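Tutorial, part two.
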Amino acid sequence: MSEIDFDKLIASIKEHTEQQKATARLLEKTFLETDKRFEETRQKRREMSLEADRRAAESDKRFKEMSERRKAEAAERSKEAARRAEEADKRFKEMSERRKAEAAEWSKEADRRAEEADKSFQEVSLEADKRSKAMDKSFEETRQELREMSLEADKRSKEADRRAEEADKRFKKLKRVLRKSSLKTDRQMRKLENEWSSPWSRLVDSLVAGDIVRLLKQRNMDINRVYQDDRGTWKGQQYVFDVVAFTSTDVVVTEVKPKLQKKSVNDFLEKMKLFKLSHSDVVRDKNLYGAVAYIRAPNGVDVYAQRQGLFVIKATRDSARITNEAGFTPKPF
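Running the prediction step on this input gives:
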């Protein structure tokens, strides 16, 4: 009888040892995958920074091309205005010569008719004066039109210069915004690495995010989207939500803690208020629920969380499960 008990003890020790090895392998695999994700994220940020520089360079090039094109257009318009003015002067000279020739002809005709009758001469003379005044008026109108065309060309040239200057200011502002955004992204990456330094936090988050669709489906929630590590700022207040799951009518926000404590539950209840304010466009027409996930929950904290209307999710070695009672109804926020 004593020998049989000894064999069972050895078998139990071997089984426990294998379980510990499996757990160690799982942790090692999780650490490697997480490091790989961090490296991929850093590479994407570097590529985004390079892309921002490339776009800035393209914007510089486009601005220069646009500025040169505007200057060329202004020069072309000025040249066109000068050409039209020259043509108008030419037409004016031709018209003047023609009018002078006509006037000379009329004068000859008037002289011939004067010989025939003084009355006819006076009538022709009056008609010539009338036409001369009309011609002078026409010449003055032509000159005024040319002056207006010249002023309009100057005005358009100044407007093109003003718009080019405004475009230059907007482009410089865009470059400053892109540089600021790149610096902010680098700071967020460093902060993200520090906050995810705990291997237990990475393990719990990975297990919960992987099983959240299955877990909530057991509670009649058909999840169609899952986001991890939702970060941002609302009215100067920074926030981080570990896992956010969506259905067509519901939103479930999950807080991940290796060790669940009463204070962490109370803090999360306050964070849910911030989520509702910062994501008002998302939850406007949906039901908002909260959930806490953990590995250990001493002193009955999991029961306390359930009483606050939260889903309670316990992470095991390789999966997770909801510990709420079958008839549990979550509290909407």
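DSSP finds six helices and six strands in the chain. In part three we will examine how such features are distributed along the chain.
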